[in-house]
Amino acid sequence: MKEQLTSFDIFCAVKELQHRAPEYLEKIYTANDGQIVFRFSGKSDFEIHCINGSFISISNIEHAQEPDAFVMELRKYIQGRRIERISQVGFDRIIEINMGAYALFIEMFGEGNVVLVEDGITVCARKYRKHGQREIARGTAYKQPPQKILPWELTAQKFEEIARNAKYDVRRNLITQFWLGGICDEIMFRAGVNPDAQMRELNTREIEAIVDAIRCVFEQTNELKPSIVYENSTPLDVISIDYKIYENHSRKFFESFLEAIGAYVQELRLVQHTKQIEKERMERIVRIEKKLEMQKQEYRSALEEYQKWKMIGDFIYAHYDDLMHAITNDAMPCYAEKIDDKLICRVDGLEFEINLDASLNDNAQRAYANAAEARKKATHIKEAMKNTEIELEQTKNEKIEIQVVQTQDTRPHRKTFWFENFRWFISSDGFIVISGYDAASNDKVVKKYLGDFDRYVHADIHGSPSTVIKSGGRSIPDSTIYEACVFTVCYSQAWKQSVGSVDAYWVKPEQVSKTPTSGEFVPRGAWIIRGTKNYVRNLNLELGIGYIEYENTMLLMCAPLSAIKKRTADYVVIVPGNTEKEQLVKTLAVRFKEKIEVLQKMLPAGKTDVRA
């Protein structure tokens, strides 16, 4: 599988960018995956997503709420500037976006980099580094890597000169001398030359055939035919032109090479995600098998303990008269030896003590009690073993049913609402309810958003968020207050602790204060409540997740059941449970075709199950 774009891919991607003819670098964003997004305007508006120094694609990925420091610096210098030229640096994996005195270099090798240069001097870079003689540092001259021969300018004569002095096979030389990795096998297939042949041993006909094949593939880039190539339903490659080596493979075609790259990256991530899940499943199987083996050992040990103590009790009663005679007359049988206040018995390889300070009956009953305890332990272990065997069987039979988890949102860009900076929901009566998710946001929801006619809600348990019901100038009904209380307790420590039911209270804004009394300390995110608290008792921990329509926009909402039922019939119910949050997030991301990060932020902390 292709895991990064080649020089030839970038050559074709740049051709497409030039054809789109962007006029302005309109905006720069930090994407939700931490990468950089450039928005261009001109003949058509579009966004380019730089992905880990490996891929560049047309994107409609969601932007992070706050740009990172590097993006802020780029905005300062080049946002809104007119684009004079977009080009590939030689045949290297570097894209240059020229804006007069400024040039932006997108490097797509190694770990990738984005470097802003003004009149040849580095202004800033995503990553500052030094590799050999090349250094990316603020205030230093930007040096491009040493350039190779441009393959489309090759002649048979020039190729022959290089070949005669070459080491290694043809494939290695095409990759290292001309940066034709990724398309090397296609060129050799068209030329009819063995790629493993020694370069210096090529004859004139073979050299001419290779040069003709190189010229041919570059001529084809004048009319791109982008596609994703599959092998056994798994994405193998993303290509810009028809490859003869893939004639017998299934393909999915696209109008745009940059869009094909974006789709390929999604499918590549899906494959990687599936492999990771399968790896985790196999690791779970190993852990469960080890657990089962330990339980079997403990079970055998408990049975042996039971049999030992039962045998001791049985022996005492079976030899009661002999033992009593021995103790009374101090005449020890062959299997017994008196040492101090104990009678040491050795029978069938088993050695045990009889306490002479207690009666023989007490000694026997003590042995039977120990046997009963061991049998009880063995019974519990056997039950645990059955559960472990069921868990093992279920894990072995798990099917990986995963669709494309949307790390890159395929829906059109939508309006972002102010309340999405917090945990939020729309009540069944249409009121906006917001809640903090950490100390800073708990402070912010109150300081910035608690208005005169709003209501403040808090759970009567440690670790509760601060929740604000926005009145919008209307009277807030009891039903909305109840829902806000449910919402608040669900995002408190109660969920993580799987508490059955919890109380919450609400107060008016004037009762909420940050001013402590003498000797009182108010930590960040906490508030002092003055006066009477209005309690709502015995709130159950359950939430619903589903898409709702709000101001003509579809939003994924997590809310109390009465609120979610009011706005959609398509939802799932979640409750505190036994499923790790990370595992459930992946399941729900598939269910709602939403990004993992969105669900990660939306779900309460702790283990959670979907209620049937």
Q: What do these coordinates show?
A:
38% of the residues lie in helices and 24% in strands. The chain has a 6-stranded antiparallel β-sheet with strand order 18-19-21-20-22-25, sandwiched between helices. Strands 5-6-7-8-9 form a 5-stranded antiparallel β-sheet, with helices on one face. Strands 1-2-3-4 form a 4-stranded antiparallel β-sheet. A hairpin with a 2-residue loop joins strand 26 and strand 27. The chain is flat and about 115 Å long. By secondary structure, the chain is of the alpha+beta class.
Keywords:
alpha+beta; 38% helix; six-stranded antiparallel beta sheet; ibrinogen binding protein from staphylococcus aureus fold; Helicase, Ruva Protein, domain 3; flat; single chain; 612 residues; 4 domains; 15 helices
